[in-house]
Amino acid sequence: MQGPDGMKRVLMLGTDLGGRGGVATVVSLLRQDGLFEREGVLYVPTHVEGTRAARVGAALKGLVRTLACLARRPELVHAHAASKGSFVRKSVLLALARARGCKTVFHLHGACFDSFIAGASPSMRRWIRHTLEHSSVVIALSSRWAGFLREFAPRARVVVIPNSVPLPPMGPDQVRPGRILFLGQVEPRKGVMELVQALALLKERFPHAQLAIGGQGELEQVERRARALGVADRVLALGWVTAEKKQQELARAAIFCLPSHAEGLPMALLEAMAAGKAVVTTGVGGIPDAVRDGDNGLLVAPGNVEQLAAALGRLLADEDESLRLGARARTTIEEQFESGFVIGQLSAVYRQLRRAGEQ
């Protein structure tokens, strides 16, 4: 939907869609599945991956473009934000939008937003609360994140809208027995070191078990740990995987594992569930809104290597159980997280804000 002069009605702010992070994936899917055309969205990137100079340049360019758009006063300004610099950039732009009389949507994706608040100065905490409470709507990815935000900023209007994923067609069976897949940033927060340790605990019982790691980050540290534990020959570093390669790796995987210590609502997990994979993960952030232990996946305590090894071993030893959990996971995506369902929720928020602005 556009205004009578052709002006886009929704200005959306976020990271460059050519990036590799979860937010870029989320927004790209919204565009691909029709939200931009349906709602008249103009997307302005305010962040790009790369050198400090590249990031500063993107922020300045995003500021100039945003100011130019605000001069024409779009109905809504929708910002996808995380913590630290991402929050600072978006909070300032949203404040400028409100000064122009625009309705604003603060869409939180940061997995560590609670830690960001806990470590912030008193003045920054006040600004964070101000931003949340003065936004027309705050979007949280899960009921747990919504509860946290409501407690921190009681006057904020918080709604829960999960990340969405497409439901891919089920192709021919390409599963490689014993193949465990990890997708994500390779860093301690994602629990990848514990995953390597769990693999070492399982190596005697399941000599065919293999861990494929897709992502960028601390790969050298992971490889050193694998050598020290005697499982270097069982760990395959894939590096960053493209969208096409991701689907190939999901098709090959027997199990998907993401033993994170902190999360928003990880796209890789939802994509694995959509592909019909049995998932082993942790009950942090928004994950419990998607995964119910024993029903459509297995949940373990973050950092608990023994629990992680036991859950993986359970699925490696019981293919029928793995298939059952994978089928239930796909059904969950179809019913609660499929792209059309989520786009409908976003459109409903936009409609409500437009009606409020007309009163």
From TrEMBL:
<dbReference type="Pfam" id="PF13579">
    <property type="entry name" value="Glyco_trans_4_4"/>
</dbReference>
<comment type="similarity">
    <text>Belongs to the glycosyltransferase group 1 family. Glycosyltransferase 4 subfamily.</text>
</comment>
<dbReference type="InterPro" id="IPR028098">
    <property type="entry name" value="Glyco_trans_4-like_N"/>
</dbReference>
<feature type="domain" description="Glycosyltransferase subfamily 4-like N-terminal">
    <location>
        <begin position="10"/>
        <end position="163"/>
    </location>
</feature>
<keyword id="KW-0328">Glycosyltransferase</keyword>
<keyword id="KW-0808">Transferase</keyword>
<dbReference type="Pfam" id="PF00534">
    <property type="entry name" value="Glycos_transf_1"/>
</dbReference>
<dbReference type="GO" id="GO:0016757">
    <property type="term" value="F:glycosyltransferase activity"/>
</dbReference>
<feature type="domain" description="Glycosyl transferase family 1">
    <location>
        <begin position="179"/>
        <end position="331"/>
    </location>
</feature>
<protein>
    <submittedName>
        <fullName>Glycosyltransferase involved in cell wall bisynthesis</fullName>
    </submittedName>
</protein>
<dbReference type="InterPro" id="IPR001296">
    <property type="entry name" value="Glyco_trans_1"/>
</dbReference>
